[in-house]
């Protein structure tokens, strides 16, 4: 069984395929997972493993741990490209997400002013104005859109909310006016006896339509890299991802394959 990935609030730095030398911030518990999706490919495992015992880290704890780490890295001359909010769940669920982003910007400016701040979000909290305002402040506002077809999205991402739809989330992502990166995980396989494949012509066509409505500054596409909670999933090859990327580039999008 896949279990949670990160046992601390600040982790790394780790080398990220997409982001470079990345210091992670985990706003979920250190011994459990809290997410509004339950993706079949989640590297942190399914939500059924529980939320753990430590609770969400307080704003003060995040700020204190981050300052300690940045200060130590600066003293040692360690390189850093980006501070990334990801971890064992969805960072924007934290009730003080907006304040934590403000603290992080202040600490970044103090210790590593050239470093970028990235947030990897599943896009489920874009109905909250404070979350949207905070995401507007970060350098890389990276938002998930795994399919633009509701049936497929529900199969892959398993959103907790029954009212979460592709139409609504595309509209919400579009409100950033291009000040965002959209991230799509391509995969094939089976879950609960149902076939999953978001690489078909129909899926890619629907995604292109959604990306056009969103007009992101970049589209990041990738496939499975680590163990997944659903065993019957298949990685989409780099070659296939490149074919999809070519289709997207032909439509005028800046595409990163990782
Ligand atoms: S949104 Fe991210 S953390 Fe949440 S279930 Fe999906 S992959 Fe895991």
Order of helices and strands: EEHEHEHEHHEEEHEEHE
| CATH level 3 topology | TIM Barrel
Report the count of strand segments. 11
Strand portion, in percent?
15-25%
Q: In what order do the strands lie side by side in the largest sheet?
A: 1-2-3-4-5-6-9-11
State the distance separating the first and last CA atoms: 25 Å
Report the uncertain regions: none
Count of discrete alpha- or pi-helical segments spanning 4 or more residues = 7
Largest pleated sheet:
8 strands, mixed
The hetero compounds bound to this protein are: iron/sulfur cluster
> How many independent structural domains?
1
Please write the CATH class name.
Alpha Beta
The named CATH superfamily: Aldolase class I
Q: How confident overall, as mean pLDDT?
A: 95
**How much helical structure, as a percent, in the residues?**
25-40%
Quickly give the CATH architecture. Alpha-Beta Barrel
Structural class: alpha/beta
Q: What is the CA-based Rg, rounded?
A: 18 Å
Given the C-alpha coordinates, what overall shape results? globular
Walkthrough of the structure:
The chain has an 8-stranded mixed β-sheet with strand order 1-2-3-4-5-6-9-11. It is globular. It has helices spanning 59-76, 97-111, 129-137, 150-157, 166-174, 201-214, 238-250, and strands at 10-16, 20-26, 82-86, 116-121, 140-144, 181-185, 187-191, 194-197, 218-222, 233-235, 255-257. Helices cover 33% and strands 21% of the residues. Helix 3 links the parallel strand 4 (116-121) and strand 5. The protein has one domain: Aldolase class I (TIM Barrel, Alpha-Beta Barrel). The mean pLDDT is 95. The chain is α/β, with parallel strands linked by helices. The two termini are 25 Å apart. The chain has 7 helices and 11 strands.
């Amino acid at each position: 069984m896949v279990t949670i990935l990160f046992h601390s609030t600040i982790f790394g730095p780790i080398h990220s395929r997409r982001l470079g030398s990345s210091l992670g911030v985990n706003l979920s518990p250190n011994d459990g997972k809290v997410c509004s999706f339950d993706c079949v490919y989640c590297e942190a495992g399914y939500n059924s493993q529980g939320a753990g015992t430590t609770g969400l880290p307080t704003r003060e704890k995040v700020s204190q741990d981050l300052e300690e780490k940045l200060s130590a890295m600066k003293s040692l001359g360690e390189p850093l490209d980006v501070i990334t909010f990801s971890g064992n769940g969805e960072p924007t669920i934290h009730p003080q997400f907006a304040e934590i982003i403000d603290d992080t910007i202040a600490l970044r400016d103090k210790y590593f002013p050239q470093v970028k701040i990235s947030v990897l979000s599943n896009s489920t909290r874009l109905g909250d104005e404070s979350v949207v305002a905070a995401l507007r402040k970060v350098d890389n506002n990276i938002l998930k859109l795994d399919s633009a077809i509701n049936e497929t999205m529900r199969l892959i991402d398993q959103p907790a909310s029954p009212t979460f739809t592709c139409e609504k989330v595309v509209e919400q992502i579009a409100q950033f006016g291009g000040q965002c990166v959209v991230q799509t995980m391509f995969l094939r396989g089976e879950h609960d006896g149902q076939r999953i494949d978001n690489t078909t012509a129909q899926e890619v066509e629907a995604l292109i339509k959604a990306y056009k409505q969103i007009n992101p500054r970049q589209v990041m596409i990738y496939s499975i890299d680590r163990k997944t909670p659903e065993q019957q999933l298949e990685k989409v090859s780099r070659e296939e991802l490149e074919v999809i990327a070519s289709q997207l580039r032909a439509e005028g999008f800046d595409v990163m394959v990782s």
